[in-house]
Amino acid sequence: MGSNQLLDHFGRFHDYLRISLTDSCNFRCFYCMPDGPTNCLSSGHLMNPDEILHFAKIFTNLGVSKIRLTGGEPLVRKEFPLILKKLSSLPVELTLTTNGVFLDKQLDLIKDCGVKSINISLDSLNPDTFFKITKRDDFHRVMDNIQLLVDSDLHVKVNAVAVSGLIESELADFIEFTRQRPLHVRFIEFMPFDGNKWSSNKVITAGQMLKLVQSVYDVVKLNDEPHSTAKKFKVVGYEGTFAFITTMSEHFCGDCNRLRITADGKLKNCLFGKEEWDLLAAHRRGEDILPLLVQGVRSKFEKLGGQLNPDYQKISIENINNRSMIKIGG
């Protein structure tokens, strides 16, 4: 059932909720996790499985039809199986984003809970580069698990953060990854968050990447779904697809339908917004969270969290007030 309580002042209805299960991860990717020691949330500051289910029920009753579980790395949360089982009882499309390392251990559970699509974060197809980015020697395990998902007939998206100076040499490798596999590779323009050493000269735009791809391949444009953040393409004759998520060069805020809950129970109405609404604290005080939820939705800015300049080359990261990516949730 729908509700105008998830409708913001710009007429956008929010039917897609991303829930972060943890701010912990077994990888150390620079674009997500700041350098130095990490202070992960203690279990008492995380939403527990029943609280996650409670919030998810409220959102689904208001019209949310899709829930994505994120992190950090959601599969490092020891209660992940319990959380997934609880959420699988709701009338929503349930999916997750993961780095893929532990998928083989959870695959039966994932399928039993009705998950049909999984996003894998994979920024390089070169084992040495993979190690430099993640600081972990898990490349072959991730690749094996991607193939395991394909063999299990799951819909698999591979997300690669495109950083200038790194991605150019691998564009063709990622495109070849789609030749004989029904994989959907998405190149994500590098976005600014606290501590991730972003600068505009590290951004390579979708337009620049597409020109490089078109210089080698015969490419066709595909239709994009409503509310899609990705602009989809396909190499003629290849089984899979590739796409660009153009947050920096061409934002897609106009029909945004996404909300986020951080692992510590804060509502964020935009990935780039500094404002947060503490649903968990209100719930633990015994308060109705609906007024906070509605306030959060209706406070949403028209674009880019009210903080970023639409011209990414004019963004000054020193003036951005936000969490690191790992503290927000993917």
Folded structure, characterized:
This protein is of the alpha/beta class. The chain has one domain: TIM Barrel (Alpha-Beta Barrel), CATH 3.20.20.70. The chain contains ten helices and twelve strands. The chain has helices at 49-61, 80-87, 103-112, 127-134, 139-151, 171-176, 206-214, 279-284, 290-298, 325-328, and strands at 16-20, 66-70, 93-98, 117-121, 155-162, 183-189, 219-221, 230-235, 241-245, 258-261, 266-268, 277-278. A twelve-stranded mixed β-sheet has the order 7-8-9-6-5-4-3-2-1-10-11-12. β1, α1 and β2 form a beta-alpha-beta unit. The longest helix has 13 residues, at 49-61. The mean pLDDT is 94.
Overall SS class: alpha/beta
User: How much helix is in the residues?
Assistant: 25-40%
Number of domains: 1
The largest beta-sheet arranges its strands as: 7-8-9-6-5-4-3-2-1-10-11-12
Instruction: Give the helix tally.
Output: 10
CATH superfamily: Aldolase class I
**Unreliable stretches:** none
Order of helices and strands: EHEHEHEHHEHEHEEEEEEHHH
Give the overall average pLDDT: 94
Largest sheet: 12 strands, mixed
CATH fold descriptor? TIM Barrel
Shape: globular
End-to-end distance: 27 Å
Number of strands: 12
Whole-angstrom Rg: 19 Å
* Proper CATH architecture: Alpha-Beta Barrel
The CATH class, by name, is: Alpha Beta
Strand content: 15-25%
